[in-house]
Amino acid sequence: MNTTKGGFPIWDEAFDMEHFTSEEIAESDLRAALITSLVQARREQGLSQRDLEAISGVKQPQIARLESGNANPKMDTMLKLLAAMGKTLTIVPLQEQGNPAAANG
């Protein structure tokens, strides 16, 4: 990730390929997809971060850090958040997700 003159983050694929392995990029992509799905599920249910705190027991600042990508989600935290929304994790082959990185594994 590079930054613009104004300091806002921009996506720079060439920079990433120079500085990160394909495995690190794939892991980051999976983490981003998981967090995006979590936020989407929360919003679809009309829940605020405070609402999710109340039903999951996970503190709102921790939810905010996780959703903004400023914290790596622990498995137990993710499961608490998902269970509170009636969701779970499912293990599927990467190819089913349309992930081109799966062809490398």
Describe the overall structure:
- The chain has 105 residues and is mostly helical.
- The chain has one domain (9-92): lambda repressor-like DNA-binding domains (434 Repressor (Amino-terminal Domain), Orthogonal Bundle), CATH 1.10.260.
- It has helices spanning 13-19, 22-44, 49-56, 60-68, 75-84, and strands at residues 2-3, 9-10.
- Helix 3 packs across helix 5.
- The longest helix has 23 residues, at 22-44.
- The protein is elongated.
- The relative contact order is 0.12.
Give a quick precis of the structure.
By secondary structure, this protein is mostly helical.
Keywords:
disordered C terminus, 2 strands, two-stranded antiparallel sheet, 434 Repressor (Amino-terminal Domain), elongated, mainly alpha, 105 residues
Question: Would you tell me the structural class of the helices and strands?
Answer: mainly alpha
Strand order of the largest sheet: 1-2
As for the CATH topology, it is 434 Repressor (Amino-terminal Domain)
- Average pLDDT rating: 82
Identify the CATH architecture: Orthogonal Bundle
The percent range for strand residues is under 5%
Task: Give the end-to-end Cα distance, rounded to a whole number of Å.
Answer: 24 Å
Biggest beta sheet summary: 2 strands, antiparallel
The count of helical stretches stands at 5
Give the SSE string. EEHHHHH
Topology, please?
Layout: E1 2-3, E2 9-10, H1 13-19, H2 22-44, H3 49-56, H4 60-68, H5 75-84
Antiparallel strand pairs: 1-2
Helix pairs in contact: 3-5
